[in-house]
Amino acid sequence: MERKQKTYLVTGGAGFIGSNYILYMFRKYGQEIRIINVDKLTYAGNLENLRAVEKQENYSFVHADICDAEAINKVFEENDIDRVVHFAAESHVDRSIKNPDVFVKTNVLGTLVMLNAAKAAWEIGDNVYKEGKKFLHVSTDEVYGSLGDEGFFYETTPYDPHSPYSASKASSDMLVKSYMDTYKFPANITNTSNNYGPYQFPEKLIPLIINNALQGKKLPVYGDGKNVRDWLYVEDHAKGIDMVQEKGKLFETYNIGGHNEKQNIEIIHIILDTLREMLPDNDPRKANVSESLITYVEDRKGHDRRYAIAPDKIIKEIGWYPETKFEDGIKLTIKWFFENEDWMNRITSGDYQKYYEEMYKH
């Protein structure tokens, strides 16, 4: 008996983590899966990230807002969705401080729309669902708040969000949990640490520092630069999500962390050292790469001091572990940006938003 091609609905698949996940899934499963990518194409969505797969018969793109219940319900009505992987979210803390309304709408209301659509499509009786269906809600370690110098975030750590972004993600997590508890809705939640790797939008620390250093621009550092983050290579995250979908126990939360704690200022020094090592002596950009570019700026409001995830549960129950050491991952990331300078230039110039503009922008 021929095995049914599994259909994935991925929200926010044109973003950094979503596009890396889609590319990883096609590399792993090929024709065994079909992926429908739903994305609103905000500033952080870039269909260029998916040029390698856009013409495949088992990939399709739907230009829609996850807050648009009619559009989302239509996707479920027209397709037999087996898996939902819900990435779509506003995610930049600085932007949430300036405009929290957008974060609440997208991250909370959008998640509610996705839950309701999947529930309506999959439910065959009171709290009974079609076999094999599963919803995975992708969240962040920022919902847990800030750690001191010691300790780790566990799945049992109480939520203590400090920014409008993390508060909106905490709210969406609670919505998913309520559907699991009340309706026995087949879902999992994953909370991840800071991701890095190819296709990351350059407002984030690592691509920002790489791009600015190569151009001899200032390297902004919040406060004293000693805020600590746990860094996870994006492909390791994609592997973790896939493994939770296939092996995770229903209704459980899994923390996906990198065991790569670094201070922000330490990250900047590592990037500068790696750039100097990788750039040939005859490359004029090498002269730009200097610690003199480091510029300390006023600290972010509500800036959490330290995040660190203990991925013990996912390692023990599922067998996932962070495979990529930071010293290797940062080299892979810088190499990718070297080899894809045109991509970065289109991002920083805004030209990337013209890609498919006539077809999808209104």
Automatic annotation (TrEMBL):
Enzyme class: lyase
EC annotation from Swiss-Prot or TrEMBL: 4.2.1.46
Segments traversing the membrane: 7-26
Record's keyword annotation contains Ribosomal protein: no
Co-factor(s): NAD(+)
Catalytic reaction equation(s): dTDP-alpha-D-glucose = dTDP-4-dehydro-6-deoxy-alpha-D-glucose + H2O
Keyword annotations from UniProtKB, A to Z: Lyase, Membrane, NAD, Transmembrane, Transmembrane helix
NAD(P)-binding domain residues: 9-331
Official protein name in the record: dTDP-glucose 4,6-dehydratase
Annotated organism of origin: Ohessyouella blattaphilus
Gene for this chain: rfbB
